[in-house]
Amino acid sequence: MKALAALLMLPSAALAEPGVPVYVPEDVGISTAYAGEYYYMVGGGVAAFDCSGDRFPDLVFAGGEGPVGVYVNRSEVGGALAFDKVQSGAEIDRVQGVWPIDIDSDGGLDLVLLRLGEDVVLRGLGDCRFERANEAWGFQGGAEWSTALAAIWERGQGWPTLAVGAYIDQTAEAFPWGSCTENRLYRPAGQGFAPPLPLTPSFCALSMLFTDWDRSGTPSLRIANDREYYKGGQEQLWHLPPDGSPRLFTEAEGWKRLRIWGMGIASADLDWDGYPEYFLTSMADNKLQALREVPDGAAPVPVYDDIALKRGVTAHRPYAGGDIRPSTAWHAEFGDVNNDGRLDLFVVKGNVAKMPDFAEDDPNNLLLQGADGVFVEAGDRAGVASMGVGRGGAVVDLNLDGALDLVATRRWEVPEVWRQAGCGGGHWVQVALHLPGANRNALGAVLEIRHGDAVERREVTLGGGQGGGKAGWLHIGLGDAEAADLRVIWPDGSVGDWLRLAAGGFFDLSPGAAPVSWSPGGSAADCAAGAP
Amino acid sequence: MRVLKAVVAALWLGLCTLPADAAAREDAENAVLLGWYDLVLELVRHTATYSPPVASRAFAYVGVVAHEVQAGGDPALVSLAGQLNGLAALPARDPALPYDDAVALEAALARAMGDFFGNTGPSGQRAMAAVHKGLATAAAEGLDAAMAERSRAWGEAVADHVYQWSLTDGGAVIENMGFPLTYTPGSGPDDWVPTNTQALQQAPLLPGWGENRPFAMPVGVPCKAPPYPAFATGPGTGFYEAAQEVYETSKVLTDEQKAIARFWSDDPMLSPTPPGHWVAIVLQIARRDGLSADRTAEALAVVGVAVADAFIGCWSEKFRHNLIRPVTYIRRHIDPKWEPLLITPPFPEYPSGHSVQSGAAEVALTRLFGEGFAFDDATHEDDGLPVRHFGSFREAAEEAAVSRLFGGIHFPFGNRGGLVQGRCIGDWAARLKTRS
To answer: In this predicted complex, what is the ipTM?
Structure first.
């Protein structure tokens, strides 16, 4: 209730209809389409992270049947977007998804490539070059049709834990239903991975996310599963005790069976109650799950109510283009695209492949959150209502001007990249988290952001979405506020001091150290002042 | 069950061949029929438009195709042309030339799959192609090429005839998964209102389905559901007490009652649907008893017609009464926080659709197999639900009906009334003459 009151106490300007950002499609020279037929109907993601060392996000695309494409960001601050394709050593085919993570904590981001066949980990060598590290790190890549990834550093570990989701049995041509293959959990073994544990039962995972849903300090593993192919399956939540085997949450613990075409997960603390909500993409209606109110003094139980209809995010049917058939949603990601202090939602849409019961012209959604917590569709007004057969995506500030840009990958066609014109309409800050030693990018940390009396919590994660993920700057929209009030709860549970970070700045945050300001140069400061 | 499916899968993939000698052609027909129907049960589950009413329609037409191929080559069998509403005489074989029933049946079912499951997704399309390739190759193995081609063409002609007939029944085009794009719920205290938070389901499923042309039942739905207690909200009234029974039952459900509710839940997209459950029962009996292909096809046609007519009759009644669901009534008048065990389907309550179609299937199958015909039902074995045993089709239908009480999605009178209407409708299918 306190959080809701704070939400409604935003400056009067924030109570108006959310400002609609203007996106400009840009041909930035990306030539990597997500190619292939049946075996590439899912996946097709993008990784956004800096591999070149200039702190601008570079882009790496899964190529499906074709090779992975690595593109170095040559954009100027606030300027038109520009990328150069480079030879990187990551040019591997049959890749479904790409995720950036500094596995060996050497300060350079590595890559996990999930494939139709052996999964591959690539060590980052700097300057956007990579080398195979399966053998060096003891990573048994398997031979499955791998489709989902989530990563976390379990408490006290010097090496990450990777959850890999698998899809259907590639050999089950006439009878693929009920043939979901085993998900795997790679836990550390010294400076490498132990042989993977099976995460069974497995139900054709398309998205995975480590998330501290109950604020216990120990993340659980949430899995979105595709009901098209499982039998006896459902969405899943796994306990992941640091010193024990993973086990499923049960009905006795409150977990309710949900069976959808689970395709993507996006999480955010939308109501500023400290617990994440989960947006689950599917076909037709999408879900927005909110944890049922936790009684004072009680431990949370994993019971969720679907508030998608109430919040205006069912996104179940095209809103433009005239096709009345139900939608198919894939990648989903929250971000404050209009810098008004409230998170918005980008959803990439696209037919599976000539499924006549579902929309063929299926525009992406850009759902802007209003002051009342209800989202309104603005994809067409913002210029991102693409009719491409979308799959993966990213909400990321590609030219470091403080206004979030958008990327959507497509089957058979090159990705679409939209630059946000102007500065997003409000103030912002961006922060990067750093840890010494292991887990250099602080996966599992929580950013707490004050909004009046309420506090929004943002988990630092790698997972969710569809076929890809991000690392790097964390963007926070501020509306009219001149500064962000925030603190970091580090993965080991230590709580940083409250910080007041001036709008328009980039800050490096480390435990026990004062924020370090960083500037990309150029005209970012103009946007900090709220210039259009 | 799984072993048999594996054998059929091997045939699909051409890993073994069907026997070419004339004495074994019966086996070939059976492999074709059961092989395609195994896939039908999957396609129903994995084609988004296949809500239970739409699924029932497909089961009826595919069953008719299978039976008509048999009837076209066996003078002991009787065509359904002239018995089913609007079905004209089917293409005849050239009496001077030989045909192969297995090849004809395979071709007919392959064509029917494309006709009635063309909307399925990429995996379904791929599976249909693989099954067709495997079964067609195996069925024609060792046969005279001209005869095989003649049989194939005739089988396809039978399927085409049935498909053309199907286009005029009112149920051929399904938009938006069957949900109207706009809908204004009634405002009366007993009117159905949406029961979930899915945007798509803020309108009821297929409100016009009851106007479709029935198969064996005369047009106009001669079979009505009996009256139910007058709507009332006060304790002591019949209606309130019915709701109270749903509520109280939900509070003391036994494990067995929960198992029954889930066994007959038959959710669309997650199971073969309620009509598919009865088709699955027929297939299990066919395998257990080694039924001949003509006997299996006959049963599939009759039970398909029965359940399809049941959904037409049931939907006619549902939208005539437009009755509130228990979840809505109980939350308004008994317990605002009540949650049923099962998810309430998105359409009016009275009568219970599963009860109507189970009553119809019971009558049709009892006519074919007799009273007290016992069977095991492993329909949901792959989904982890245990096998259930029934001493008769009636026992199974009664359990299907009461499962909706345990699930909390129907009033007791909706289940009882559904069985009454369904048995009446099923009698029309049971009267079809399939053998001379």
So the answer is: 0.91
Residue B46 is nearest to which of A228, A308, A324, comparing CB atoms?
A: A228
Do A357 and B119 lie within an 8 Å CB cutoff?
yes
Q: Which residue has the tokens 């098209």?
A: A228
Interface membership of A144 toward B (CB under 8 Å): no
Say how far apart CA A529 and CA A523 lie, in whole Å: 11
Over the stretch B310-339, which tens digit does the pLDDT of each residue have? 999 999 999 999 999 999 999 999 999 999
Of A227, A325, A356, Cβ closest to residue B176 = A325
In the numeric block, the tokens 């379990």 are attached to A154
HEC string of chain B equals CHHHHHHHHHHHCCCCCCCCCHHHHHHHHHHHHHHHHHHHHHHHHHCCCCCHHHHHHHHHHHHHHHHHHHHHHCCCECCCCCCCCCCCCCCCCCCCCCCCHHHHHHHHHHHHHHHHCCCCCHHHHHHHHHHHHHHHHHHHCCCCHHHHHHHHHHHHHHHHHHHHHHCCCCCCCCCHHHCCCCCCCCCCCCECCCCCCCHHHHCCCCCCHHHCCCCCCCCCCCCCCCCCCCCCCCCCCHHHHHHHHHHHHHHCCCHHHHHHHHHCCCCCCCCCHHHHHHHHHHHHHHHHHCCCHHHHHHHHHHHHHHHHHHHHHHHHHHHHHCECCHHHHHHHHCCCCCCCCCCCCCCCCCCCHHHHHHHHHHHHHHHHHCCCCCEEECCCHHHCCCCEEECCHHHHHHHHHHHHHHCCCCCHHHHHHHHHHHHHHHHHHHCCCCEC
Residue A316 touches partner B, C-beta closer than 8 Å: yes
Is B384–A307 a contact, with Cβ atoms under 8 angstroms apart?
no
A177 contacts B198? CB cut-off 8 A: no
**Starting at the edge strand that comes first in sequence, how are the strands of the sheet with A205-211 ordered?**
A205-211, A220-225, A236-239, A247-248
The distance of B365 to chain A (nearest Cα, Å) reads 28
Half-sphere exposure of B70 (CA within 13 A, CB side): 28
pTM of the model: 0.94
Contact with chain A for residue B119, Cβ under 8 A: yes
B5 chain-A contacts, CB cut-off 8 A? 175
Q: Look at residue A262 and tell me whether its pLDDT is greater than 80.
A: yes
pLDDT digits (tens, 9 = 90+) for A277-321: 999 999 999 999 999 999 999 999 999 999 999 999 999 999 999
| CA separation for the pair A8, A454 (Å, rounded) | 11
> What are chain B's domains?
2-166 (1.10.606.20), 176-430 (1.10.606.20)
Q: Is B39 exposed, middle or buried (0-12, 13-18, 19+ CB in 10 A)?
A: buried
